[in-house]
Design goal:
Strands 3, 5, 6, 9, 10, 17 and 18 form a 7-stranded mixed beta sheet that branches. A 6-stranded parallel beta sheet has the order 13-12-11-14-15-16, sandwiched between helices. α3 crosses α4 (192-204). It has helices spanning 43-49, 97-100, 165-177, 192-204, 219-224, 237-243, 260-268, 292-298, 312-325, 330-333, 343-351, and strands at 3-10, 18-24, 31-41, 59-60, 64-72, 84-87, 117-120, 126-129, 139-143, 147-149, 185-188, 209-213, 229-232, 250-255, 270-278, 301-304, 334-338, 357-361. The protein has 363 residues and is of the alpha/beta class. 26% of the residues lie in helices and 27% in strands. This is S-(Hydroxymethyl)glutathione dehydrogenase / alcohol dehydrogenase. Belongs to the zinc-containing alcohol dehydrogenase family. It comes from Marinactinospora thermotolerans DSM 45154. InterPro entries: ADH-like_C, ADH-like_N, ADH_Zn_CS, ER, GroES-like_sf, NAD(P)-bd_dom_sf.
């Protein structure tokens, strides 16, 4: 029988969310119901709300969440009621070409759940789940493949960050760029994912680690999470970074903003033969150009990074181990704990480049 829960409902592109009740069905075959402990507010949620990423509406957005399984479908045996889990917004099918070739983060069918209604408004209007997870609600219903068991000993609220910010940021360092000990790193953009990239660089043994942002207020937090240097974004950035790296530029630059201008800054800060990794989600009409000579001459590698090039089923437990051991600090990444009704304020801070991760707490 459907249950009534509170959720943030986005009615159309560009419209602010309305906080109200939705009707959530019991989980059917292959699905589970999760009561959310918390949900992180990611820049991808803002991109979905503003139409920069494809999303059917009306919808409940939110994809970075953790909570407790409270009901399972009739055929579900691998997930138990009472189990604490992290949501996985890109569950691989394990059968497509990409999955069979070691790239589950590029799975052809990982986004299928986002295109089918999962709940409804009280008047019967069908609702879609943002990125298939719909974490901006007290409860959600997702496929069993979209939950990853959370190991014991991890605080359940901050664990939400493992599902996107940390998996993406640390994975960009360890899986995509494969940073080695002693290599130099620059991180451009210090939102939630950028802060996780810093921690990934520290885990990898990078040195120096140069943090870059438009806000000087982020220097203290960046240093706490692993940065050895902090610089403000600006026209002279690449020159400053070369000055910290023997005149060469960094071995690895990570762009975590999602703009052509930031990608160009990261590229220009990378040494000859180095690597620039694009983690931020940009707009399709934000054009970036290179001349043919610079691509040859600098011999740099430019790569995109989707979901940290990770497999959540194996990488989330490993990241949780680092959290348990104190090597990753989730709590420090959360600069604002908010209610569901304060979600628009979190989007506003994001647009202004303020703070790290905003975390909606339901419990």
């Amino acid at each position: 029988m459907p249950t009534t829960v509170e959720a943030a409902v986005f009615s159309e592109i560009g419209a602010p969310p309305r906080i109200g009740e939705i009707l959530l069905p019991d989980p059917g075959p292959g699905r589970v119901k999760v009561r959310l402990a918390a949900a992180g507010v990611c820049h991808s949620d803002l991109s979905l709300a503003e139409g920069r990423l494809a999303q059917p509406f009306p919808a409940v957005l939110g994809h970075e969440g953790a909570g407790t399984v409270i009901a399972v479908g009739p055929d579900v045996t691998d997930v138990q009621v009472g189990q604490r889990v992290v949501l996985n917004w890109a569950p691989p099918c394990r059968s497509c070409w990409f999955c069979h070739n070691g790239e589950p983060y590029l799975c052809e069918r990982s986004g299928d759940a986002a295109h089918s209604p999962y709940a409804s408004l009280p008047d019967g209007t069908a609702l879609h789940a943002g990125l298939g997870t719909a974490a901006f609600a007290q409860e959600t219903v997702v496929p069993t493949s979209a939950v990853v068991p959370l190991p014991d000993g991890i605080q359940p609220h901050n664990a939400a960050l493992l599902g996107c910010a940390v998996l993406t940021g640390v994975g960009a360092v360890t899986n995509s760029a494969r940073v080695r000990p002693g290599q130099s790193v620059a991180v451009i953009g210090l939102g939630g994912v950028g802060l996780a990239v810093l921690q990934g660089a520290r885990l990898a043994g990078a040195d120096p680690i140069i943090a870059v942002d438009v806000s000087p207020a982020k220097e203290e937090l960046a240093t706490r999470l692993g940065a050895t240097h902090f610089r403000l974004a600006g026209d002279g950035l690449s020159r400053e970074i070369r000055g910290l790296t023997g005149g060469r530029g960094v071995d690895h630059a990570f762009e975590v903003v999602g703009s052509a201008a930031a990608i160009r800054q990261a590229w220009s800060a990378t040494r000859r033969g180095g690597s620039t990794t694009v983690v931020g989600v940009g707009a399709k009409d934000d054009r970036l150009s290179f001349n043919a000579l610079e691509l040859f001459h600098f011999a740099r590698t430019l790569r995109g990074c989707v979901y940290g090039s990770a497999d959540p089923a194996t990488d989330i437990p490993e990241l949780a181990r680092h959290v348990h051991d104190g090597a990753i600090d989730l709590a420090a990444m959360v600069t604002d704990e908010i209610t569901l009704a304060e979600l628009p304020d979190a989007f506003h801070r994001m647009l202004e480049g303020k703070g790290g991760r905003s975390l909606i707490r339901f419990e």
